[in-house]
Amino acid sequence: MTSSQTPFLQLENIDVHYGAVQALFDVNLTMQKGEVVSVLGGNASGKSTTLKSVLGLVSPSKGRIILEGREIQGLLSPDVIDLGVASVPEGRRVFPEMSVYENLLMGAYPRRHEKEAIERDLHEVFTSFPRLAERRRQAAGTLSGGEQQMLALGRAWLRRGKLVCIDEPSMGLSPRFVDMVYQVLFRWKAAGQTILLVEQNARIALELADRAYVLQHGHVIISGTAAQLSADPAVQKAYLGAA
């Protein structure tokens, strides 16, 4: 990446308020197409609010969000999704009464006329997550938390978005399911998928990411390459369990 490249996504001096409470303070973030960028931090650090700002779920009170040269701050979430952004939300948010297969097709709805491509992508999802193939006719609400996370990822893959925004994919999962989820994310990265990842599990997020930002109380306090942050004593102490 060179400084002359126009960022694929750029947040410029973003403030976000929830009523009288300010959640983000002058946040700046950039990413290039094909990059994986992680936003790290503890509870109430502002990392999920940063993601929600990109997705149009909250509207900044100050600053600009620019996607492929277009300002998107203030757009509603459906309009952001129409621009090619896919989401894997915190808590999965699958459609509980619909089957696994129907949930996946909901992800593909914006490209519903691409029938052959959708069939190929469904095959890829079922190959990546054999449990979903076994349960394709099962109601999504009856799946375990790990299986629902697989489904949320598969649904996002069916969207074939230019950008995938992923919020806390390891939250509440057993180590085995975390490994399964991140194996797929590593494959997405290898395929060139652009990913904006919010994650409390800093160790595995930094293994996946090209670059990362650390938020604390709504402020970006550290940013750099994943290797730089992994070697930073302050990050090691606060987020990686170093003594």
TrEMBL record:
Residues 9-242 form the ABC transporter domain. It comes from the Bacteria. Belongs to the ABC transporter superfamily. Keywords: Amino-acid transport, ATP-binding, Cell membrane, Membrane, Nucleotide-binding, Transport. GO terms for molecular function: ATP binding. CDD domains: ABC_TM1139_LivF_branched (cd03224). The lineage of its organism: Bacteria, Pseudomonadati, Pseudomonadota, Betaproteobacteria, Burkholderiales. It comes from Neopusillimonas maritima. Transmembrane segments: none annotated. InterPro entries: AAA+_ATPase, ABC_transporter-like_ATP-bd, ABC_transporter-like_CS, BCA_ABC_TP_C, BCAA_Transport_ATP-bd_LivF, P-loop_NTPase. SMART domains: AAA. This is ABC transporter ATP-binding protein. The keyword Lipoprotein does not apply.
